[in-house]
């Protein structure tokens, strides 16, 4: 981890960036005609080919193959793209594995923005290319080896917390960030509760008993307008967030972690990226705290962190409620509602 303090948001930034461009400006076929195409007939973007040749020092991309991967909760399409290269140093050929996925505009802009803190923030994946076609924006990143973190009790590599500290410190204050990235403010919170969570709660009436549905609707409505929310949320200091840090979005390879799926990136209080994974007294938070101090020269404001954890205890069960109602038994949904109601009471 670099010991130099990160520049704050709003200062001039330099570093790798990827221009969002129309697909027709980005695509052409690779040089061998037998390569498979993706499920939507996409061709490999020149920016991807150029990246692969530069990274491998090979002479030519001879072809490519595509296979579908499991979709995430946000992406409609996720595919593994394998490039077959020839004329490579010390070998006749090699392959490069990448992932292409559909994305939102704020995921593209969010992942593009955080490239400036790589490679210091080693958990952030490289953005190889981004573009847009008739189905919407898409991104390409390297295929990351490893497996998802099994659960919240599993040991998480330290570099994840170092990278989150770097992300939050660099963009502390939340200024100068793309307008398309959502901000966790009262307007956003009201829309999340009323326009996103409530309709999805009602979609799952057939999976849970009527009393659970009534309780969930009541809790979300109260959370949307709660006096403590109106008092606390405007005072929380914003930064750039991944926004969906949980074991399924953490890929671990030996002692290295990667933070994948930036489709929920937001601008909001930093502890939203920690509270769904570790507690304030955990070794993970200690690693985050030490990295923050190393980067900024100042200690973590513990009082601020505690308030942000209290807010996260409200937001997290509310924003995940639709997923829980679709995938978990009623007892687990009721437990989440218990947590949200307790959090509102102490906010």
Instruction: Fill in the CATH topology of the largest domain.
Output: Aminoglycoside 3'-phosphotransferase, Chain: A, domain 2
Uncertain runs with pLDDT below 50, 5 residues or more? 1-5, 7-41
Number of helices: 11
- The tally of strands reads 11
Rg from alpha-carbon coordinates: 21 Å
CATH first level of the largest domain: which class? Answer: Alpha Beta
Task: Bin the strand percentage.
Answer: 15-25%
Q: What shape does the CA trace take?
A: globular
Largest sheet: 6 strands, mixed
Quickly give the structural class.
alpha+beta
Helix content: 25-40%
The average pLDDT score comes to: 87
Q: CATH superfamily name of the largest domain? A: Aminoglycoside phosphotransferase (APH), C-terminal lobe
Q: Provide the CATH architecture of the largest domain.
A: Alpha-Beta Complex
- Order of strands in the sheet with the most strands? 1-5-6-4-3-2
The N- to C-terminal Cα distance equals 35 Å
What is the ordering of alpha helices and beta strands? Answer: EHHEEEHEEEHHHHEEEEHHHH
Whole-number tally of structural domains: 2
